[in-house]
Amino acid sequence: MITRRRWLAGAALAGLYAGAPRALAAQDGTLPWRNWSGGLVAHPAGRVAPATEDELVAWLKANAGPVRAVGAGHSFSPLVPTDGHLLILDKLSGLLAHDPDGLRATFGAGTRLGDIGPALAALGQGPLILPDIDRQTLAGAISTATHGTGLTLHSLSGNVRSLRLATAAGELLDLTPEDAELFPAACVSLGALGVLTRIELQNRTAYRLRARNWAQRTEEVLEVFEASAERHRHFEMFPLTHSDYALVLAIDETDDPIDNPPQSPEEAAAFAQAMASWLAVPPGERRPLVNGLAEQIEPTEVVDESYRILSNVRNDRFNEMEYAVPREAGAACLREILDTIARERIDVVFPLEYRYVRGDDLWLSMDEGGDRAAISVHRSAAFDYRPLFDAVEPIFWKYGGRPHWGKVHSLGYRELAALYPRFGDFCALRRELDPRGRFLNDHLRRLFLAEGTA
Ligand SMILES: Cc1cc2nc3c(=O)[nH]c(=O)nc-3n(C[C@H](O)[C@H](O)[C@H](O)COP(=O)(O)OP(=O)(O)OC[C@H]3O[C@@H](n4cnc5c(N)ncnc54)[C@H](O)[C@@H]3O)c2cc1C
Question: How confident is the model at residue 8 (pLDDT cuts 50, 70, 90)?
Fold first, then answer.
């Protein structure tokens, strides 16, 4: 029997396979590429998906044109769009090798982060850190210094122990920390130095985590944030806009049995429904409504394997701006952003995110040189993000922020050179490894070429 729902599903599929691809195809026959949020579109001349490193090297040697490696397309900044070729590394994925004594494992560059946890668990290992979601590829994630939360925890790039890079000329370079002029550049390189094919990660023994969520007044959380971040393995908050409250998340190790029942569809939809109802009220009148809901939120606790706790699912599409400010400037910067959103009555209901990341010494890591507070603002993909991001970005600059490479920002060569001590060295290395600039697109030219340089 065909129910109404099955009919609708069938009709949608028919549309996908019949009309949609034709409608999507550009006039020259190429299929467009879109990022996760849908805000970025490109019309690449072609797509290449090598099945082996040899195939990749042969293709790089045989073709001289522009090319951009793509991971899972989860960046909000235009790192990937190209009218040259898109290089898809999905076939270079999976566990390749492991070191049981050193608790390390090597994965193909195209491995999704979500496949790493189960593969490590089978070896008795666990990931040191994961970001909020795990759909990204390993190469894509380290290329932008993707991070999680924790004062003792580096970004994923900080946990790389070795990697292999295919250069523009098709040469394979095996890099370790001993390669002092290449390794710290290659660990966060935005696909500008070459194509990563395999990455070795430092892990630890497998472990379980307990996550506790609750709502609390933002000012109360900020007052004890330092102590809380030191006490918990992970501690972060999601301040609600036009409100006095934040959602708080603390995660710690535990040996307790797994207790992580699946959310009911009603629970999963509750927050999105609340945000939709807030949107119906003008921003200046929203505070009592949001505060009222926050006061009703019951604390929750779940226990599960580390990789199932560290990453979540984000069903609602959005665009995001994130800057990493020096840790000691974080609270003041966050307060100024929340005040600005309230004072200017900016119509945003998505919570912010506030978390600490441990400092490292990778040339283009946002956390290079010391611990940072990462602060994110989000705008639903259905709305223009500019009014929010334009109001907030100068506040990040005022507090010495560095933009997340994978998220929306407006900085170029001159500003970035002032933010990163080794920026000039990175640009020189890029020129040396890719003298013809085949790995550049318009966005990367803006980042890495001095104004006026062809
Ligand atoms: C819902 C959502 C949640 C997110 N949560 C977090 C978070 O918690 N923390 C955080 O820090 N970030 C977060 N991000 C940002 C995201 O992790 C980064 O933008 C990441 O770079 C995306 O990885 P990707 O695999 O999609 O790569 P893409 O976006 O496809 O590419 C990113 C960069 O990697 C390069 N690249 C990809 N593969 C290769 C390769 N094989 N060799 C060389 N270069 C390559 C690309 O050229 C590009 O420059 C989030 C993004 C979304 C959409």
Answer: very low
So what CATH class is 209-403? alpha beta
Residues 183, 133, 77, 397: is their CA dihedral positive or negative? Answer: negative
Gap between the Cα atoms of 218 and 350, Å rounded? 15
The answer to whether the CB of 235 falls within 8 A of the CB of 250 is yes
Please list the residues that pair with 324 across neighbouring strands.
374, 402
**What's the CA gap between 38 and 352, in Å, rounded?**
21
- Ligand 1: which residue has its CA nearest to atom 51? 74
Residues 6+ apart with CB under 8 A from 403: 321, 322, 323, 366, 396, 409, 411
Domain residue limits, the chain? 209-403
Amino acid letter, residue 438: R
Ligand 1 nearest atom to the CA of residue 190, by list position = 49
Burial of 265 per CB tally in 10 Å (0-12, 13-18, 19+) = exposed
d(CA 121, CA 228): 29
Q: How many helical (H) and strand (E) elements, i.e. helices and strands, does the chain have?
A: 16, 19
Q: What is the ipTM of this complex?
A: 0.99
204/219 Cα distance (integer angstroms): 35
Give me ligand 1 centre to Cα 389, in Å.
20
Q: CA 319 from chain center: how many Å?
A: 11
How far apart (Å, rounded) are the C-alpha atoms in residues 402 and 405? 9
Q: Which of helix, strand or coil describes residue 148?
A: coil
> What number does the ligand 1 atom closest to the CA of 143 have?
34
Q: Are 310 and 129 in contact (CB under 8 A)?
A: yes
Structure confidence at residue 28 (pLDDT): 56
**Alpha carbon nearest to ligand 1 atom 33, residue:** 140
Which pLDDT score, from 0 to 100, does residue 29 have? 60
Alpha carbon of 8 to ligand 1 centroid (Å): 34
Rounded Cα distance between 424 and 401, Å, is 19
pLDDT greater at residue 28 or residue 377: 377
Cα separation, 313 vs 34, whole angstroms: 20
Task: Say which residues have a Cβ less than 8 Å from residue 400's Cβ, sequence separation at least 6.
Answer: 325, 326, 329, 419
Q: Does 439 sit in the ligand 1 pocket, CB within 6 Å?
A: no
